[in-house]
Amino acid sequence: MPDPSQLGSGDQPQIDKQELAFYEKMKKDLRDLLSKKKAIDKNLAAVEDYIFRYEGAYLEDALNGNIIHGFDNYLKGSGSGAGGYGNANNALKRKGTFTDNDRLFSLSSATYLKVRCESGII
């Protein structure tokens, strides 16, 4: 049975001032942490978007090879790169021939994939 000195008008125990202060401090700390998390999530999304865009630019511009498919074409000189082998039309045809599966760095981020799936991009 509760101590009668702690009973208020509705027969409910009164909250100690020390407990209330602790509760308010925890509530403020939680608000602050959630705000920090939101800022960190926003920063992470910006970095992941940056990686996605520059990864796409790299894959699109790497006419003679890239880290995903290798550099065999560069060594053979089949593009319009070193030594002037090949022709410009061949290089233009190859530009932009990559898929999302070629995105090694973007695909390695679980959070970026989750955001893309939720937004319907993938």
Task: For the structure shown, list the relevant keywords.
single chain, 122 residues, mainly alpha, 5 helices
The total of beta strands comes to 0
Helical residue percent?
Answer: 55-70%
How much beta, percentage-wise? under 5%
Order of helices and strands: HHHHH
How many helices in DSSP terms?
5
Structural class estimated from helices and strands: mainly alpha
Main β-sheet description:
none
Radius of gyration: 29 Å
What is the overall silhouette?
A: rod-shaped
Give the low-confidence spans.
Answer: 79-93
Write the SSE topology:
Layout: H1 17-61, H2 72-76, H3 88-94, H4 104-107, H5 110-118
General description of the model:
With 122 residues, the protein is an all-alpha fold. The protein contains 5 helices and no strands. It has helices spanning 17-61, 72-76, 88-94, 104-107, 110-118. The longest helix is centred in the N-terminal third of the chain and has 45 residues, at 17-61. It is rod-shaped. The N and C termini lie far apart (60 Å). The model is unreliable at 79-93 (pLDDT under 50).
In short:
With 122 residues, the chain is mostly helical.
